[in-house]
Structures
1.
Amino acid sequence: MTTNCSPETSSAATARGPRLALPMLGHTRGSRSAQTCHFRCGDACLTENPSTSSAPAFEQLAQRAIARRSLLAGLGAAVVAGAALSPDEARAAGSGRGQGKGRGTRADAAVSAPGALAPAGALAGFAPVGPVAADVDDVVVPDGWDWHSIIAWGDPVERDAPAFDLDAQTPEAQAKQFGYNCDYLTVLPLGGSGKRALLVANHEYTNENIMYPGYVDDESLTVEQRMTSMAAHGMSVVEVRRDGPGSPWRAVPSRYGRRITASTTEFALTGPAAGSDLVRTSRDPEGTTVVGTLNNCAGGTTPWGTVLSGEENFQGYFRNTATPDERNAVYGISDTGRGWDLGDERFDLTKEPNEVNRFGWIVELNPYDPFSTPRKHTAMGRFRHEGATASVAPDGRVVCYMGDDTGGQHMYKFVSRDRVARNPRQGRDNDVLEHGDLYVARFAVEGDPTSDYDGTGEWVPLTRGGRSMVPGMTLEEVLVFTRVAAAAVGATPMDRPEDVERNPVTGKVYMACTNNSGRREPGAGNPRVRNRYGHIVEITEAEDQTSTTFTWALPVVCGDPSDPSTYFSGLPASEVMPIACPDNVAFDAHGGLWVSTDGQPGSLDLADALHHVATDGPERGKVRTFLTVPVGAETCGPVVDSVEGSVMVCVQHPGEVDGASIENQVSRFPYDGEVRVPRPGVVQAIKRR
Ligand code: FEO
Ligand code: CA
Ligand code: CA
């Protein structure tokens, strides 16, 4: 999503036709189209909300490290850290991304895998695709692979849902159909046959201009259309079935089918800030029940089979945004014209000033129980959550890594107070994420420059033992205004921290910093004035996930490899494929790192993609493109099965191109030949046998 792009860059792909009255048209930064700026993040670039932390900006530290690291290029110095897998971690490798039968097989493979070298297992030796131009309206997969659509916007999810009808969209229908702009994706085993699974997807935001016949501008939207968009946000649970391993998944009607929406679903607010004065409203005087979730971006799957979802750009959904609490200023709360208050007045902050404090959380959903009440966990802090990925530490505590996706914001870690069982049962709720310590990362460049690390860091506590660690702020204030607390303790401003995930094989943690073109002042010796292309941060905890110190390195500084400001762990440009704006990170059972992108069209004039990135051994830093998505789309939520040879992704916002409109579409994804609009959806690529 959002806030840091560069004004000199225009969208690579445009459509002929009437231009929308979009505030960012001609002013977009970096990789964004004006449509993206408007519909996804509410023209956030028009407002500034940098961290007030006094710590050196991460990009300055990073560039110093890049300069030092370049001295090491060619030495082949990368070494596998080789952190041992706990039984829980080994199991997580097989269950968190599991697809039915074979979980044990994948866990075994993970334990015995050498680390993240070249693509392994069924992915070994795949023929990279592309580079593919940004205006190609197709899903491109390697030779020897086929792809198909599993489900798309408007398809029935709940059993009594109507079929999609472009001309008869209603809030009631949408609340039972697959939502718009799917992002995070996970597939959880159902039963033991390997033929059934639960697919869970996030629905981040809506593109009204290519959804509704008759759209002219935001003012032209009817209240019913606005409420339909509201219902198109949230999450979906879909049962999928197949004939057996290696066969394509297909969506089926099921009692598990469930929509979670911004308008209809009740959430329980948990943790220390639940019930506080900061989250009470007239409709919820107890401050414990929130209706809806919104802007659900990335996420994670817990070892006990629940799904975490990050409420990201919650700041752009409210009217009359001059909130009385100045601590919300750093969140950039702004009226984006969605007009949800016309159908639900709690989105008018003059009527419900605390409603905005009830979004921006990590959500937990148990997809195995269609009647479960999803939760929002206040112990994990409130910010523009990209996502959260959970793993179990050797002592049984659960650790979640999290990014706050805005230029100059921070990276966080939650460590639970309580422990989970060694073999938590799938789909059984627990309250382990309701209490724990919240940390924020502070990076430094220290140590021996000839060693195999680039810097050190510490996790600075914001809360510990149920108490605030931030002078002048109560526990509730730290959790509701977490950005303020992080700045107060000197957290490191970073280049839009997106997805963060732990490699279940090596134990190292990888974070995608997608870009930060807002930076105008380079650091000393900094070869890259603007970080238009982003980079990947590798973190090695001192001991395990609960450690409070770490070392860090940058295995990949993204861009066109011919650009001297890029860095691919010392590999020559001829051996590397271009990559830009990394967003989601995921691991396969062999420890292979997969990185999906959101911004290659605007930054490299290439289609957004899913890449394999080698993190260890002589190929460390090597990028191989596995697939690309249609014009206007970003690649989201990769689920990579390196045992069976299956790769699933969400195709988010196909056709989101400046100038596109309901009558002038640039994409017809998923190409079903009947519907006149692009429909965001889930695809699966399968290795041909
Ligand atoms: Fe919704 Fe940070 O991407
Ligand atoms: Ca994104
Ligand atoms: Ca994202």
2.
Amino acid sequence: MPVITCIDDLKRIYRRRVPKMFYDYCESGSWTEQTFRENTSDFDLLRLRQRVAVDISERSTAGQMIGQDVSMPVALAPVGLTGMQHADGEIKAARAAAEFGVPYTLSTMSICSIEDVAENTEAPFWFQVYTLTDDDYMRRLIDRAKAAKCSAIVITLDLQLLGQRHKDLKNGLSAPPKLTPKTLANLATKWAWGLEMLQTQRRSFGNLVGHVEGLEDPASLGAWTSQNFDLTLDWKRIETLMNMWGGKVILKGILDAEDAKMAAKLGADAIVVSNHGGRQLDGALSSIRMLGPIMDAVGDQVEVYLDSGIRSGQDVLKAMAMGAKGTMIGRAYVYGLGAMGQKGVTKALETIHKELDMSMALCGKRRLADVDRDILLVPEDFEGRWQG
Ligand code: GLV
């Protein structure tokens, strides 16, 4: 086992092990990738305040997210095609999350189906919902999440249209991969990935195949879905979906204080400040920059989480110090999963936990619950001075 000291170490192994098409799918932003890059570089602009002479012998990163106990407030974000990063990837990631005591979110665009994940894991998970125009399908999807005893749904609001990622088009991204000469040449160098993939039957979109009318070619599901995303999605429809579900709801993909106010007004249990990991509106501000204004607008009305750009425990600490009640990681755990399956997800969580715990302590805090703006140094113009 190589010595893994940080998330980047996992990423290096992941890159070697997983077919290029799926590495690129994970590691891209839309168009010029400006927002994708700034999601991480803006975290670097924030600094932590070192404090000394504090008894830090007893420490805790524990907390709650939507009323659920968590060992640290870092949920696994919904990620499409996770089961292509590693055979049975969703089940493995969900198991690692449950063992670590953090929530797992299953994507609508997963490879393993809701039922499959429920049957093969113990802890309840969250289910992410893409809103499609097909109302019957939406009702059935929500009923399936209820039957699987999911403890919350996460409604994604920032993907009515799919942002263009150049590499996905060039690679001909599909699940399972289409066997062109180019793909075959790359797959030939990824034999460990391939051998595991051959041992599972879970190789196409489990929540859609067999559940959607007229779908003959599972590999074309990506294209099918993007044509069927609900362009009419508005607050009224979101409210309808929330009522259809009737349980805890997290609204994900909010990047503006006015939208945050609407989400709070609808009675969401939590919102996720997110630009979809820089995969949607290229040119949007980073999530961490938008967190402050959104906290000011709704921080006392709804739990605010942050995703997009977190690659370390220090990043988690900065987001919490800025006021977030929780965070989500996507790429950071996918690197681990692609690198070494369930063990890799555990390693990613352990790495982030260790960084979070030690950095918190070096800021003179014993409990994450006590962390506030006091430990954060924010450049004066961090939120930017934008006209209009
Ligand atoms: C879907 O959520 C994607 O970002 O590809």
3.
Amino acid sequence: MSKSSYDIALLPGDGIGPEVVDAAVTILDAAAAAYGFSLSYTSYDAGATLYQSTGVSISAATMEAIGSADAILLGAAGLPSVRKPDGTEIAPQIDIREHYGLFASLRPARLFPGVPTRVQAEHIDMLVIRETTEGLFAGRHDPLEPSDDAVSDRLTITRATSERLFTLAFEQATLRKATQGTPGRVTLLDKANVLRSNAFLRKIFDEIAAKYPDIASDHLYIDAGSMMLVTNPERFDVVVSENVFGDITSEIAAGVVGGLGVAPSGDVSLEHGVFQPCHGSAPDIAGQGNANPVATILSGAMLLDWIADRHDDTTCRTAAAAVRDAVASVLAQGPKTPDLGGTASTSEVTHAVAEALSTSRVRA
Ligand code: ATP
């Protein structure tokens, strides 16, 4: 049921994380004011800076508290200079994924007019869905058998997770077709010709596809599919894959539509959603005031869509579309940050998006 106010948990994190989260909050507030709902925010510490002072990257209390918010907005967590004793980086976003069973990562890749791309394509608008809890990550916590001769990683596909994943993919294709006029097609990328686990994955995909006669479906082997993402990205609508194939696929898709500065994402289960830019904390540009806020602002639009779905709230859905349109007009006309060839600051771009949002509302 729709509400007049929604609670958002903020995890600004490290590096440019707080800068881009501030920008997204400015736009979310502008959207809420224009469309007549309200958002309240609670900010929590998580990441490498917290780890340096406390020895934990996210406290147990924060982990619990964020679960009761309507949605979570994360900036970026981790710094290359801050490492755990085993040499790995701080990544509370992976802990949150595991804690709340966020089994799918949604990564839209849309080419906005005005954004430079190295591929030859006019119209790219796809949604890559990556499974995030099993596949080639399934054995991440398996005991390591000490050996200098051979080490294995386990690839596991379960029916339960695959059915949820593919149902989500077909539901997303249906929603995109209805609300954005996309063609309505789901493509599975796999290695079913070699890996038994992937032959099983494909079988489950076909079972779920049969329940959605209005949505087209097809499969490509991951190698050929990866090439086509670069040579013919226009052919894709919703793309779905197991964990590691999906990880790589989503970065290729982000690359063809202009890079990390414009790539949003959402890690979701049926109950919880964490929205964040695909980029990391970018310590090389932190504090300079010129990080591109677009990826986080678009993640904020995904957050509004998520709330709209869960609460059947058409106002939030309209506001999400308005945020995307405002971003599109700013990317087309400028101002733009240096990663897109411009000279503008984070706040100049943010204010331009807010201005475009309020102008479009007045016109509507
Ligand atoms: P992680 O492993 O945490 O995802 P990463 O190693 O992929 O991080 P990023 O922090 O994402 O690295 O940065 C990669 C490059 O992209 C850096 O040069 C960084 O400055 C640039 N970059 C990332 N995000 C942005 C942004 N929002 N605006 C401008 N440049 C960015």
